[in-house]
Amino acid sequence: LRTTQVSQKPMGRGYQHKGHAAMALRNDADYDDAMPNGDTPAILFVCLGNICRSPLAEAAFRRAVADAGLAVEIDSAGTGDWHVGKPPDRRATALAARHGIDIGGYRARQLAPEDFHRFSHIFALDHANLEDIRARQPADGRAQVGLLLDVVPGREGQAVADPYFGEEAGFETTWADVTQAAAALAARLGE
Q1: Active site annotation includes 162
Q2: Average pLDDT of the chain?
Q3: Which residue has the higher pLDDT, 29 or 180?
């Protein structure tokens, strides 16, 4: 499946990148079957509060698919609701800015039932959130649900480091994790 060029709206949220990704890096024919009516593939990254890991994963993946000239609908959410409407953690915002990405316009939101119909793939950033997502998944939801680092050869079953309670250095580790995953997903999209 080949894709079109990316168009971006300000603030980074709600614009689309069209492309092709697969939870278990399945082949194109299998993936196309997962996309009803040829819809644009849509990827959702989910952590606990949607202020650290998932916004960084969203930002890294937006950059990766834009650099590759691909297009996919991309968003992030949290399983918890206590940060809804708030911007990302200041340390995540600063880290993204150091990498030339502005996530200051992102606002936290909670995973919603309609996400299982809107998104083709929902990637959890750790095992606890993966279990929570699967527990909320409706029987008729179309989204394939999996762990983000499962797309990185040699990192299967690993969680993205959670930097929230640590120092700023922990955000660099998180950035390395999500950047590695974004590159692996973008590479698969470009096949």
Answers
A1: yes
A2: 82
A3: 180
Rounded to 5 degrees, what are φ and ψ at 25? 55, 50
DSSP 110: B
Rg (CA), the chain: 15
Q: Which listed residue (52, 53, 75, 177) is catalytic?
A: 53
Give the side-chain half-sphere CA count within 13 A for 81: 1
Catalytic residue among 47, 75, 89, 132: 47
Distance separating alpha carbons of residues 42 and 90, to the nearest angstrom: 27
| CB-CB contact of 46 with 54 (8 Å) | yes
Q: Give the Å distances, CA to CA, from 93 to 137, 138, 175.
A: 30, 33, 11
Q: What is the mean pLDDT of residues 148-161?
A: 96
